[in-house]
Amino acid sequence: MSALSCFLHPHHVSLIDTHSFRAKIQHAGDPYYNIDGLSHKDVLAPKFDIIETEHAFFIVGEIPGVKAKELVSFEWLEDQTLFVRGHVDSLEAEQKGDNVKKLHIERHVGRFERSFTLPTKVDPKSLEATLEDGLLKIGVRKIGSS
To answer: Cβ distance 46 to 59 under 8 Å?
Structure first.
């Protein structure tokens, strides 16, 4: 994915490019940009917060149902855009049997993806992530910071 195309991605947060209404209208009908809701169908977009300090960025998101951070992938584009991907499993494996009946389903399960373009370049090798109680915490140092 090119840097330009990820800026308008439906699951993308850019801290350097605001998504203008005109730009969204230009891409109406293009399924990649999800203007019509067809692209990324069944791909979840978990909620994340981004915090900046003098030397680092911290990205914190809710991904309940993911049991280990090893089930989450992190991919960098040009040392400034981070893609976070993974899968939220269903509980069906734990609910097997002849007498099991789903009465009400609200939980989201399946693939998830988010991407974030940070305002400055970072050191991708400095990425540290933890996952506890469904909360994914990512820290990454800015370039030139110790």
So the answer is: no
Residue type at 75 in one-letter notation: E
Percent of the chain with pLDDT over 90: 41
CB of 63 closer than 8 Å to CB of 88: yes
Backbone dihedral region of 133: left (phi > 0), alpha (psi from -120 to 50 degrees) or beta?
left
Question: How far apart are the two ends of the chain, measured CA to CA in Å?
Answer: 30
Domains of the chain (ranges; CATH) run 3-90+106-141 (2.60.40.790)
| Type of residue at 73 | S
Q: How far is CA 46 from CA 2, 42, 117, in A?
A: 22, 12, 16
- Burial of residue 118 (CB within 10 Å: 0-12, 13-18, 19+) is buried
63 touches 134 (CB < 8 A): yes
Cβ neighbours of residue 29 under 8 Å, at least 6 residues apart? 35, 36
Write the pLDDT tens digit of every residue in 18-65: 455 554 555 455 443 444 444 456 778 888 999 999 999 999 999 988
